[in-house]
Amino acid sequence: MNGQNRSDIRPGLEVDIVLKQDQRTGKLTRGIVKDLLTNSPRHPHGIKVRLQDGQVGRVKQIYQET
Questions:
Q1: 3-class DSSP assignment, residue 56
Q2: What is the pLDDT confidence band of residue 65, given thresholds at 50, 70 and 90?
Q3: How many CA atoms lie within 13 A of 58 on its CB side?
Q4: What is the rounded average pLDDT of the residues 15-38?
Q5: pTM for this model (two decimals)
Q6: Domains of the chain: which residue ranges?
Q7: At residue 37, what are phi and psi to the nearest 5 degrees?
Q8: How far apart are CA 23 and CA 7, in angstroms?
Q9: Alpha helices, DSSP H only, in 1-66?
């Protein structure tokens, strides 16, 4: 699943995000969702989340529930 729909994402999911500084290269960072930061139900570039380690970025890929 891609990360464009807020309803697909919830705390505890394993996701790949793109950090702000990695947007040009597209480098992905994997982690577990702690908080959802985007309030709109959909976002074309991915829903912005905070990972459990504190990193913030837009979801590009959703993996599995942990």
A1: strand
A2: low
A3: 17
A4: 96
A5: 0.91
A6: 6-65
A7: -105, -20
A8: 23
A9: none
Please name the CATH architecture into which domain 6-65 falls. Answer: Roll (2.30)
Type of residue numbered 45: H
Instruction: Enter the tokens of residue 64.
Output: 């599995």
Beta-bridge partner residues of 51: 33
Number of Cβ within 10 Å of residue 38's Cβ equals 18
Q: Is the pLDDT of residue 2 over 90?
A: no
The candidate with the shortest Cα–Cα distance to 4, out of 50, 31, 28, 36, is 36
The answer to whether the beta carbons of residues 59 and 49 sit under 8 Å apart is yes
**Whole-angstrom Cα Rg for the chain:** 10
Predicted confidence (pLDDT) at residue 42 exceeds the cutoff of 90: yes
What are phi and psi for residue 6, nearest 5 degrees?
-60, -35
